[in-house]
Amino acid sequence: MKGFRPVLFSLLASVMPLALAATPPILQVVAQSNDTIWNAVAVGDDGRVYVAGPRWTGSRGASLAVVDQQGQAQPYPDAAWNTTSDSVSPTRRFVNVNAIHRDQHGGLWVVDAGVTGFGGEVIPGAAKLVRIDLASGKVTRVLPFPADIARTHSYIDDIRFAGSHAYLTDAGEPGLVVLDLRTGKMRRVLNNSPSTRAPADRDIVVDGETVRTPDGQPLHVQSDPLEVSPDGQWLYFASLEGPWSRVETRRLNDPALSPEQLQQHVKSWADLPPVGGTTMDASGNLYFTDLAANALRRLTPDHQIQTILVDARLHWVDAPTLDKQGRLYLPVPQIDRAAMFHNGQSKIQWPVRVYRLEAAQLQVSQHE
């Protein structure tokens, strides 16, 4: 994929100054906090909103919470899972939750990277998947990541589903994880592939500044965003910086394919700028948050880019999600303002919020 530069990325750069529609969408606040940084959101069929975020950002509240009718975040599924006590095994409590995502059977899956911190090491037994039945509020499954799946410097990042399989990205040790939901068995694929490795020549820029690690080097995040096509036949994935690739899920599900054979089935898909997070609707529209521009954009199935909203409040929006009514939820954790990126001094602007856009407002856009 070296040298792959479709027109999408350059097109974005040339059109960013364009004015948006006369009446921009209205951001509604559905949850906010003065002590917890949420980078993930999910919505139940009953409309209940679930929020989560890793503790390495400086969060002091529950790792996973449900928003009650008064707008307050309550520990979910209970206080025990959200304890920070070292007396509780890391296999039975949340350590550093990075993502939450619903399956098609009423379950909420929690991705616990189980790391000492961002860029740190995996704590034995802490890296895991936890499934919670939303109807009962009970944990129904805990799947630890074996040491050969969550390696020492892994950061298991996010999850998507297709049929009897789930797919996850590793933002620390570049690669994908394929999970057979029936057996619980996992395999790593596309390890250190160009499609899962962050390119060295792309930086993450927010508000005109390159995001840097504590040692002053530009931050590079390996395989991070991923989506499954509405028909379940394709997995789309990328490093945070892009570009995006695609591969048929049936190829990923085939353990008989050698790494070389699987690599041959990986194809270039789209060249997008660094994204905070993505979600895909039933029509195959990819909603993505453009970090450099504080923008929400949409990539249509015919590869047209549309701008829905540019707003300073959308500063490093992370993983958005759509509810069954077609409303879009946008958590704004301000990741680049976390203390680790500023010599130990947090620049987070409180309160941290989760916004929502109504379905009709998603049609307000500027064609790029």
Strand composition percent: 35-45%
Helix and strand element order: HEEEEEEEEEEEEEEEEEEHHEEEEEEEEE
- What radius of gyration results from the CA coordinates? 19 Å
Could you estimate the helical fraction of the residues in percent?
A: under 10%
Number of strands: 27
Task: Categorize the overall geometry.
Answer: globular
**Spatial sequence of strands, sheet with the most strands:** 20-21-22-23-27
Q: Low-confidence parts, pLDDT < 50 over ≥5 residues?
A: 1-21
Q: What do you see in this structure?
A:
With 368 residues, the protein is mainly beta. The protein is 5% helix and 36% strand. The strands form seven sheets. It has a five-stranded antiparallel beta sheet with strand order 20-21-22-23-27, with no helix packed on it. The longest helix is centred in the N-terminal third of the chain and has 9 residues, at 7-15.
Layout of helices and strands, plus pairs?
Layout: H1 7-15, E1 28-33, E2 40-43, E3 49-52, E4 64-67, E5 73-75, E6 97-102, E7 107-112, E8 128-133, E9 138-144, E10 156-162, E11 165-170, E12 175-180, E13 186-189, E14 205-206, E15 209-210, E16 223-228, E17 234-239, E18 244-248, H2 249-252, H3 259-264, E19 267-270, E20 275-280, E21 286-290, E22 295-299, E23 305-310, E24 321-322, E25 328-332, E26 352-357, E27 366-367
Antiparallel strand pairs: 1-26, 2-3, 3-4, 4-5, 6-7, 7-8, 8-9, 10-11, 11-12, 12-13, 14-15, 16-17, 17-18, 18-19, 20-21, 21-22, 22-23, 23-27, 24-25, 25-26
